[in-house]
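User: I've been trying to design a sequence by hand for this structure and keep getting stuck. Would you show me what you'd pick, starting by listing the structure so we're on the same page?

Assistant: Good idea, let's start from the same input. This is the structure you sent:
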């Protein structure tokens, strides 16, 4: 379907919604949410009826549509929306576009603004059909491999009867794409017989917190197969919650109160005696109340206040201005405040409850635990579930129990989902069977990659050797990378073992410490930001020359410094006494700093420098070695191409944390004392490195004391040549041959050309 046509119809629908809402004047917040959701439901329901009618089919909710005042008043407009495109309209796409926009009061009337916040709250990024088919097919075939009755012909009635009674669920069903894919898979691999498909449908289950999503699921499945889907099991509610279900689910859903305990459907799930297969793409969100996002719709004046304590004053004042709006805010917030306790009481959740709660991990553990004794689960989740230590307990449980079957890791570079192109997600299959190893594919960008990239087999022991602390999956695209990691992991100790007494830190948080931070030099000490640093460069960029508006706008950019570099001009300044208080445990003069927010697809991933100890924002992490020699050695290791390569293979997501660094294998300190002749000079590897790093910092007087003593004078015509020489020296310590170092460097083609 033409995207522009869908955009056009959504604009027409939004005009219809806005006209209806503005007839009532300015509304209470709760009433506005309810009205918008009711209109979304009525419009999607009406369109579903008209589409069904055009095909000569009866819509399950036909009486509800025909008896509604809304349809009576707007039938002609709705028919005009469809026109000659009536056979091709995609209700899922229309609803997703509606979710992307929010309704706000502009001072005179309500208007739509393009904003994905509601969709963020639902985590409702629907899965492309071709992708959901491949993933569903893999899960189904995995289940057959483990459970197909021996000796039964796959074309026999006995086999068809067995497949038709398999209980299959999607606990965050959305538009029903995974249930539809399951029907397509069984049609392809088992039978397309109409009676067979009808029986399969009777054993499909889907749940969602959004009534409109359930409506679209019902429509998509019934419309695709022209079958009676009245026995399709679609359930409104939140399957994560552990309370007896309430009678007011529809009312709570209409208010977007998805985490209220009465949204629980645990009783309904408990009555089903285990599922054979659970599929889906659960929400990818952190369960926390986002105060500024909430007020961005209802009261931008409050939302625009960055400091939490100042916001609280305005919110408390608003209680007197509008008690009813304040009551909705408190009820909405209280749902989030109490949800963690509620989840901890759920007997089906244990390993996913550690740290900050992520819905994809919670849904995965819940899905795994509602399987029957032979079942399989295949969910599309963020790759952090299999890569980050925060999710380690759940992942390690799956590995230790030998239930993990396969992991396929995708990178979003081709925007499969409308999120950051650097983000990764994974399709993870587990089964209640004993598996000696699991298969891994990584670097998948699209459906063609999914079919072409070869799997590698990994054991739990492999993960222990490669990531001894967290035992999570590295970012290996092929067996060569995995073998390299295994080799260096066996040959070298980890950073944490070689440098056990360094002190890591990330002290200043611009939001959490906002009451101690100002924007003027007289407010305190300058705060260094990640934008200011590069490899061996502490004066990479500055805010000098930027206007006030450009400095403090969202995603503000700094100005790169090329010639005549100066100490960067900061945006923020921290109170000196508060800085002394939070930094009292750090005493070293010099500190190694690196950009925390980075990516494995950047020109370089590890960007480290050295500076005197100073306040740094959360975009910088740092460590102190309390020893000048170790400081120089660590800086050289960090900025080496081999260390950077290992970081790329081991870093989950886009945050280079200390937990990643601690697990990286590094040369021993004593190896830096080896005497070698290099470029005509005979001295220790350490001294060769020190003179070169000293030359790189020759124009930064803040660190000159660190490089005062030199065994010989060094000069280079090019910075790149100097850095390459340091790379060669570090490569000697990693015992890497020329062929391997070239292969490693080839992963940084944006930095090293083929000739280099």
């Amino acid at each position: 379907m033409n995207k522009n046509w869908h955009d056009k119809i959504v604009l027409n629908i939004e005009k219809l919604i806005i006209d209806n809402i503005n007839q009532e004047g300015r509304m209470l917040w709760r009433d506005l949410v309810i009205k918008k959701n009711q209109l979304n439901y009525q419009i999607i329901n009406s369109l579903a009826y008209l589409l069904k009618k055009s095909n000569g089919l009866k819509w399950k909710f036909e009486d509800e549509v025909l008896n509604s005042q809304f349809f009576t008043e707007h039938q002609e407009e709705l028919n005009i929306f469809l026109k000659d495109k009536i056979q091709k309209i995609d209700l899922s796409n229309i609803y997703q576009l509606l979710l992307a926009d929010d309704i706000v009061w502009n001072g005179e009337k309500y208007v739509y603004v393009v904003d994905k916040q509601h969709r963020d709250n639902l985590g409702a990024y629907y899965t492309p059909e071709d992708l959901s088919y491949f993933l569903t097919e893999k899960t189904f075939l995995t289940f057959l491999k483990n459970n197909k009755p021996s000796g039964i012909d796959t074309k026999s009635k006995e086999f068809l009867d067995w497949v038709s009674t398999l209980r299959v669920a999607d606990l965050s069903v959305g538009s029903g794409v995974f249930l539809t894919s399951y029907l397509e898979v069984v049609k392809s691999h088992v039978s397309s017989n109409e009676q067979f498909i009808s029986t399969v449908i009777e054993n499909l289950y889907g749940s969602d917190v959004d009534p409109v999503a359930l409506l679209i699921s019902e429509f998509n499945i019934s419309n695709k197969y022209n079958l009676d889907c009245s026995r399709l099991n679609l359930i409104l509610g939140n399957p994560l919650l552990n309370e007896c279900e309430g009678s007011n689910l529809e009312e709570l859903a209409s208010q977007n109160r998805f985490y209220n305990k009465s949204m629980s459907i645990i009783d309904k799930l408990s009555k089903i005696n285990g599922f054979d297969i659970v599929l889906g793409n659960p929400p990818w969100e952190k369960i926390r109340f986002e105060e500024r996002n909430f007020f961005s719709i209802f009261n931008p004046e409050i939302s625009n206040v960055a400091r939490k304590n100042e916001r609280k004053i305005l919110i408390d004042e608003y209680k007197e201005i509008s008690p009813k709006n304040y009551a909705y805010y408190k009820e909405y917030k209280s749902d989030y405040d109490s949800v963690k306790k509620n989840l901890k009481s759920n007997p089906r959740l244990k390993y996913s409850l550690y740290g900050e709660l992520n819905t994809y991990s919670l849904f995965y553990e819940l899905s795994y635990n509602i399987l029957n004794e032979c079942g399989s689960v295949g969910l599309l989740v963020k790759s952090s579930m299999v890569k980050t230590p925060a999710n380690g307990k759940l992942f390690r449980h799956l590995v230790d129990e030998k239930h993990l079957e396969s992991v396929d890791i995708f990178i979003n570079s081709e925007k499969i989902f409308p999120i950051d192109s650097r983000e990764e997600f994974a399709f993870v299959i587990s089964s209640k069977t004993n598996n000696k190893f699991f298969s891994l594919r990584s670097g998948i960008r699209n459906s063609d990659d999914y079919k072409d990239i070869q799997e590698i087999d990994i054991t739990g022991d492999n993960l222990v050797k490669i990531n001894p602390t967290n035992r999570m999956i590295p970012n290996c695209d092929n067996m060569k990378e995995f073998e390299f990691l295994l080799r260096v992991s066996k040959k070298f100790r980890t950073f944490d073992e070689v440098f056990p007494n360094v002190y890591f830190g990330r002290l200043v948080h611009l939001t959490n410490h906002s009451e101690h931070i100002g924007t003027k030099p007289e407010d305190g000490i300058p705060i260094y930001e990640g934008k200011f640093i590069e490899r061996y460069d502490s004066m990479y960029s500055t805010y000098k020359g930027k206007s006030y508006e450009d400095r403090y706008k969202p995603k503000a950019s700094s100005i790169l410094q090329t010639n005549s570099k100066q100490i960067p001009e900061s945006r923020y300044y921290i109170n000196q006494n508060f800085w002394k208080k939070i930094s009292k445990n750090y005493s070293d003069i010099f500190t190694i700093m690196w950009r925390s927010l980075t990516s494995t697809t950047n020109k370089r991933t590890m960007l480290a420098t050295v500076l005197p100890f100073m306040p740094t924002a959360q975009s910088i992490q740092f460590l102190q070695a309390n020893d000048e020699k170790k400081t120089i050695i660590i800086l050289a290791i960090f900025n080496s191409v081999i260390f950077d390569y290992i970081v790329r293979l081991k870093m989950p997501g886009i945050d280079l944390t200390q937990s990643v660094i601690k697990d990286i294998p590094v040369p021993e300190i004593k190896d830096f004392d080896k005497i070698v002749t290099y470029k005509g000079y005979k001295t220790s590897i350490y001294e060769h490195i020190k003179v070169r790093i000293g030359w790189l910092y020759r124009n930064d007087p803040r660190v000159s004391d660190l490089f005062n003593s030199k065994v010989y004078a060094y000069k280079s015509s090019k910075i790149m040549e100097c850095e390459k020489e340091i790379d060669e020296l570090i490569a000697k310590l990693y015992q890497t041959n020329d062929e391997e170092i070239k292969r490693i460097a080839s992963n940084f083609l944006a930095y090293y050309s083929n000739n280099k």
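That's my pick for every position. To get oriented when you compare it with your attempt: The domain at 497-537+566-748 is CATH 3.90.220.10 (Adenine-n6-DNA-methyltransferase TaqI; Chain A, domain 2). The CA atoms of residues 170 and 206 lie 5 Å apart.
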